[in-house]
Write a structure and sequence with these properties.
With 352 residues, this protein is mainly alpha-helical. It is built from 12 helices and 11 strands. Strand 10 and strand 11 form a beta hairpin.
Length: 352
């Protein structure tokens, strides 16, 4: 579905047919409750729901672009309403359940909730004015919650992000019996302004999640100042030296978010742990276009072209060396390059 953002511009019937068949295959193998699988094995037709959290939202967006299906979209979005498990207005997820399927994002993920905003606003265009307004209102509510709880103001204060896990109201520093609450300390990026990657039980992620912060711009969650802060952060920390690194700082053994299973694939600067993902470069270029940084977008498109040429549209590259790693010929790497090129050509984000 991510590949379809740009692949829909390809003048090739084989590609267009494949996109449509992918859409139909996912739709026809959805769960009874409306969940869209992460993928369907084309040989066995086995549906994989393990990394379940974001597939349905991308399906909503992809279907709106390729072949609108309002009834199924309604069913899928109803399933997502049920993922607001604590009625906070934000979606919750299990660990490693979105595109970072071997990473410790958990609880309320930034990327997932920004994608929810984008899917709701995209879906609103498929319905009558009454239902469309309900979807837009929900998108606005989620956007407000993201800014309320995820935006870190560079002041060391983590009270707001973890307050969602308090079971009593009143004095935020004490519970209802007057006992002091435990507060985490900011260990990384303490003086920076950005969106935190996840909010969990009495814990928050501290790294800068590139996809989540870029989607906040892409989905219209940010205001103009926040967009500039995020893009300046990416440039200042050289996350765009190959567009674009997945996060900073990398997570190392001994950090609270390190997991033993990282050792095989998620070593520092690799894979989800600070690797370079070419498809993310497409979203970065689109965010630059959306904020009027046209010249920077054109320069990044050239960098992304060189990266894709080096790795043959590789899955990911080493974050420190830029060396191609993972698998070649990745549809989302190629599709998001086409999307970025179309955004640069138009001078605006290439979405309806």
């Amino acid at each position: 579905m991510i590949a379809s953002l740009g692949a829909r511009f390809a003048q090739d019937q084989l590609i267009q047919d494949a996109l449509l068949q992918s859409l139909i295959l996912l739709r026809d193998h959805r769960a009874p409750g409306g969940a869209i699988p992460n993928n369907v094995d084309c040989s066995t037709l086995h549906s994989n729901f393990r990394a379940y959290a974001d597939g349905g939202l991308w399906w909503v967006i992809g279907s709106a672009l390729l072949k609108p299906d309002p009834e199924v979209v309604r069913e899928v979005l109803r399933w997502y309403e049920y993922q607001d498990v604590d009625q906070s207005g934000l979606l919750s997820m299990q660990e490693s359940s979105d595109w970072q399927d071997l990473f410790c994002t958990r609880g309320k993920g930034l990327y997932l909730n920004c994608l929810y905003v984008l899917a709701l606003r995209t879906a609103a265009k498929l319905f009558d004015p009454v239902e469309a307004e309900r979807l837009r209102a929900r998108a606005d509510s989620v956007s407000t919650r993201i800014n309320q709880y995820f935006w870190y103001a560079g002041d060391g204060d983590l009270l707001r992000p973890i307050s969602l896990t308090f079971s009593t109201e009143g004095n935020p520093l004490q519970d209802s019996l007057g006992r002091p609450r435990w507060m985490p300390k900011k260990l990384h990026l303490a003086g920076e302004l950005y969106y935190l990657p996840y909010l969990s039980f009495r814990a928050v992620g501290e790294w800068f999640d590139s996809f989540g912060n870029l989607l906040a711009i892409f989905a219209g969650v940010t205001d103009e100042q926040q967009s500039s802060i995020i893009l300046d952060f990416i440039e200042r920390h050289a996350l765009n030296r190959w567009p674009v690194l997945s996060l900073t700082p990398v997570i190392r053994p001994g950090d609270p978010d390190w997991r033993d299973y990282y050792a095989t694939l998620n070593a520092p600067h690799q894979y989800h742990n600070g690797g370079v993902w070419p498809f993310l470069g497409g979203f970065y270029i689109a965010a630059l276009i959306k904020t009027g940084r046209i010249d920077a977008a054109a320069q990044m498109l050239e960098k992304l072209a060189l990266l894709n040429h080096l790795g043959h549209f590789n899955e990911w590259h080493h974050g420190a060396t830029g060396s191609p790693m993972g698998a070649e010929d990745q549809a989302w790497s190629a599709g998001m390059y086409l999307f970025a090129a179309e955004c640069v050509r138009r001078g605006q984000v290439a979405l309806p």
